[in-house]
Amino acid sequence: MTVSAHTPDDRPGPVPRQPWRGQALLRPGHLIYRGMVGPTGSHAHHAVQILAAATPLNLTDAADHTVNTTAAVIPANTRHRITGNTALAVMVYLDPSTTAAHLTGRLDGDPADARRWASAGVHLAGAAGTLTDLPIAEVLPRLLHLLIPSGGHHRSSTPPAHPAVTRALADIERRLPNGTVRLGDVATAVGLSPDRLAHLLTAALGLPFRPYVRWRRLQIAIAHVAAGTTLTSAAHAAGFADSAHLTRTSHRTFGLAPSTLTGVHFLTDR
């Protein structure tokens, strides 16, 4: 994985046809990928995933229902995989704590059903050309504008986080590079019981404490690999036991080994 010398406002050059070759921008609260998308293993992650592809992709859910679609919204913690084909696409991963994730990640019907994912992405059908031509830093606001029509049935904001949640998230960030992050230690730091803090975090983030910690570790490791460090160094910087632990987590979360992402150029702010 390499870091591009370009700024995130640069437009993409010619796109190679191999899967998982493209550009990515990792910022607090979201990850944007633009490039070729290909098959993955079955996986689930703690982000809301939004997809807009130039040509249809096969998305398969945990019950082996498959939809062929150019657009989808996949809720957090929902097992899925891409099967068979490749396509030029934009994919956005939204942290569950963000307002954008709350706005986009609630589906009518069964959230585990691939058909619901395609229905939720209907407003993005045909938008891949526009999104892939934009400077990558402009992709998320344009995508959300297309996905959430003015008015609509979505609420425009989320309740403010409990002050203890804000303090707990900051405390988690401080502890991540040092290895084990224990709920009891974080709860003590913010002056709450572990049960009370666990309840508040789950309500605010949409996922329990331990999965959230794993998700943040993986994001940190990706950022380090993008900066040119080895898998082992990236794993240790994020608090993983070793590179094998990082690789297993990457498979579970993205359906891909970290080495698969070496063709992704991470754009940096200057």
UniProtKB/TrEMBL annotation:
Region (Disordered): 1-21
Keywords: DNA-binding, Transcription, Transcription regulation
InterPro entries attached to this UniProt entry: AraC_XylS_family_regulators (IPR050204), HTH_AraC (IPR018060)
Classification via PROSITE patterns: HTH_ARAC_FAMILY_2 (PS01124)
UniProt-listed Pfam families: HTH_18
SMART domains: HTH_ARAC
Domain HTH araC/xylS-type span(s) in chain numbering: 166-264
GO MF annotation, one: DNA-binding transcription factor activity
Transmembrane segments: none
Keyword Transcription regulation: yes
Protein known as: AraC family transcriptional regulator
